[in-house]
Amino acid sequence: MTQVLWISTLLLLLALLLGLWRIWAGPGRADRMLAAQLFGTTGVGLLLLLAELMQQPALRDVALVLALLAIMATVAFVARTQPADHHSEQDHDAD
Amino acid sequence: MIDLLLALTLPLVALGVLLARELFRAVVMFIAFGLLMALVWVRLQAPDLALAEAAIGAGLTGVLLLDALGHLRQPHPPGQPLRSLLPLLTILALVLAGALGLVLLGALLEPLQPSVNLPAEVALHIEASGVAHPVTAVLLAFRAWDTLLEVAVILVAVVVGLALRFSHDDAAAESRVSSPLLQGMLSWLLPLMLLVALYLLWIGSYRSGGAFQAAAVMAAMLVLLRLSGQQLPGQNHPLLLRAGLVGGLGTFLLLGSVQLLQGGAFLAWPEQLAGAFILLVETALTFSLALLLYALFEASPAPARKGHPPRTGDQPS
Amino acid sequence: MNTFLPYTLAGGALVILGLTGFILHRHLIRRLLAFNLTGSGCFLVMTGLAQQGQGVDAVPQALVLTGIVVAVSATALALVLIRRWYHLTGLTGLPEDIEPELQQGDNPAEGKTQGAPH
Amino acid sequence: MLSWLTEGPSLLPWLVILPLLWSILSLTAGQRLQPLIATTAVGLILLATLLVLLQWLQRGDHFYSLGDWAVPLGIRLRLDGLALLLLLLTSGITSVCTLHAGRYLQEYPRAKTYFWPLLAFCWAAMNVIWLSADLFNLYVGLELLGFSAVGLVALTGEKKALAASLRYLYAALLGSLAWLLGVALIYGHQGQLDISSLALTFTDSISGQAALALMTLGLLLKMAAFPLHSWLPPAHASALPPVSALLSGLVAKAAFYILVRLWLEMAPDNLTFSAAQLLGALGAAAVFWGGWMACRQQQLKMLVAYSTVAQLGYLLLLFPLTTGTGEEATRLAWEGGWLQLTSHALAKAAMFLAAGNLVLAMGRPDLPGLHGAGRYLPFSLLGFGLAGVSLMGLPPSGGFMAKWLLLQSALLSGQWWWILVLLSGSALSAVYIFKVYQQCYVESDNPDRFRQPALVLDLSALALALLALALGILSAWPQWLISTALPGGAA
Amino acid sequence: MMLIDLLRALLLLSGALFFLVGTLGILRFPDTPSRIHALTKVDNLGLGLIVLGLLPGVEHWPVAIKMILIWLLAIAASALAGHLVVRVCREFRPSNAGEQQDD
Fold this sequence. Notes:
The complex is a heteropentamer of chains A (95), B (317), C (118), D (491) and E (103). Chain A contains 4 helices and no strands. Chain A has 95 residues and is an all-alpha fold. Chain A has one domain (2-81). Chain A is flat. Chain A starts with a helix and ends with a helix. In chain A, 66% of the residues are buried. With 317 residues, chain B is mainly alpha-helical. Chain B has a domain at 131-305. The longest helix of chain B is centred in the first third of the chain and has 25 residues, at 47-71. The radius of gyration of chain B is 23 Å and the shape is globular. Chain D has a two-stranded antiparallel sheet. Chain D is globular. The two termini of chain D are 29 Å apart. Chains B and C meet through helix 1, helix 2, helix 3, helix 4 and helix 5 of B and helix 1, helix 2 and helix 3 of C.
């Protein structure tokens, strides 16, 4: 079982590195932001695996916090980083 | 294997942050760096730091930076100065970096001979500290003096932010997201965040967690609330807000002085009640630090609307 | 204990990279990023080195926690100043080319804003 | 009373608690209560300082364990003659600055609201640093000091002040990181952080040397030593005058104080002859460069700020003159160095306050604006002039006494080259101070443009200048105080 | 016991593989909407599989609830992120196409 956990952890780490490449390569801002989002989810998975592997239950709390706050960067990106002269259009958007 | 991979990735990501041509890319890379740091702290057997890094490094700092980025978008005069000095600076930086690298390599690889075994000391005295979790014991008993001053440090940063804030009219111009989906999600996400914050606060006395991590989660909750364009309850009571900001430091000082006023030492907790006192201080700190961290975000000057140049502060009358 | 060594060295590398970036970048936010990277490097060295010697140690962990909070305060403080500076001048860097040492007398920017007649 | 002084609990923590309480109260109380709070707080802090002095006279040097946790686990405060000197100096100068600011800030209603809490934090941070004996606690103290000082500089929100405060902040942050890295190395290799305990175990290792070098670099940046000084003049010149006085008089000295503690107390054996000479050479370069730049300035406050760079340079001469120079020369240099710090703190605070008054009166910040000041503003000019006497090192000022002691030490130890530095530094300061005077005595045809500053503004500058002057005559007591803290316990 | 272990191993490995494929997905798809699709679908499935694989190993039920909660949170977060970013793309397509250089 431990080996499986190790291999899964390594695979996830690999996915993490790929995600890093995605953030670097872009090309657009939206892509970078999304890649960062996925990066966070991958981190959550990694933390859950490590909690089992290292026998550290506290790591699940870390994963919980990470999952809770995962949305923050994207919301800040959408709310604030977008062109400042567009706020009026942003406000009355309906989905 | 994991350790080597992580340890190698860290400087590479740092390089990415520093070399990114577009500033936005640098900031997103930095957010990813924060997350990697959280993983590194996990591997360094420091879950408390992983928690703090996940909440502060990947959460709040990222929001602060993205928020600032949004305000710095107008084109600025091209050709930043200092072109003439740049080659000189480059050489200087490289020489410095090289020297520092050699020195550090030497220092880091030197065999360690600690004259004191502090972890053993911590284990020896943890019983008397009133809490079971070593990091909390260090923060709120053994080295409470540092923690007290650190709260003051945040307060100073907030005060400077308040002092430099633009007038309130400008603040109305800032953008926010208004999406029904976001509102719907926040209606259960925010209470959940509050719950998790309280859980972290409580669990800090015997496991990883504590005031700072709890405060960071709570601050994130307030920031999300603000980003989604909602009013904070009590936002229009400046005195209440001020009281909240100084409340943590005040409570810490007050409870720390209880023994002092009875002839004991400052920051010594009463023998039987040490655990209760620490929990009390931590609770006050959590709420106050959350407000402070939120204020770090909120106090930053809002952008001026076009045609309304910001007030430039005082002119002698 | 050897698992901690790679991180200590990575911390050292971060410090060096961050320092170089801090010196070479002119954009204030980039310098702030470099500062944060250097800070993380210092924290890694602090924890990693101590734990290499003595195993898991709560003291450096607590110190680093303090350090992280101080670093986020520093970042926020700097961002407040940077924004205010940007809104007043439209610059994202310091006016390095008007270093007082290189000028006859004093900062010309001062002369402009204060309009001191000679 | 006497028994309470000898046996009662030490009052050291109050020196930090009181300013922190002040800042909390001033942040929550309304505008009208501020003067009352400030007066009470300053009064109480002065009282506490005085009582701490009395306690020290009764029981001598002592430690105070915070939370009753012993080192190496806990943090302790340390009171010795040197810390006491700086506590007294801080209380004195800050009180006068508070007095000055109370009147001066009436012109700056917006800045006033946040000036008081920041000032209180700054005071708390200085007292933390003077009393701290723990490397990491010093880091937190340095950050608290740096942030509040940066905030004080930025307070007016003007362009110039913002640029200066940003530069100051970045320098301070870089300095703190260097310090922190040094602390990390020391903790990793030694396992403890208390300076006095480390002094017993500090070994001559690569990591030890690297840590010392890093921490020294950080502190040199923070005290604006020669090649790293460029952040200081704009920051000190663009702040409000009471802030400039505080920064130049006291805040800039904090890093030097720690530097001395570090080298002469924690790792005296690691300070080699060449390292000490190098530190001295940096100081000498600062004396020349700062003096030269001060001579070239056209703005009054920039001139005074560059003079600070020069005067801080003298302090670094302490290192070569106390390293391997024999007992008598070491003692002379030790007393001379700290006396220089004391007299410069008083004189420079006075000079910045006076310069602020002059600028306020003239309505313009440049030197030609001073024309006619000699005739119409003699009182404001007197404060400036008396402070200048001490800076130049003319008898009977404290500056003279300090330089005289340093001179004797240099003679005794055969390091004649420092004598040249001392003499030419004094000559340079004479040049820039006379340059100000010269402008003041150029006749002005238009007396109406002067506005007489309020009496309390002039008086506060004058009081500090007189103290600096009197320090030369009454130097026996401070000298004794300093000598009790001589490293190696020669006293 | 063996069967459960085998199942867990299968779940964990396929979860990790899903992550890898998902990340590759965002690497390979040509435009932002389809990349968002890859993000929200695949990585949540991956995390779900990993959580499922880990569940039999936990001793206390609150821990299991916590892990499921984490999974739900992650799903909600990436759905919301996808939604918000799509909206931004729709609004600012012209300005989003090219990269601006900030310095």
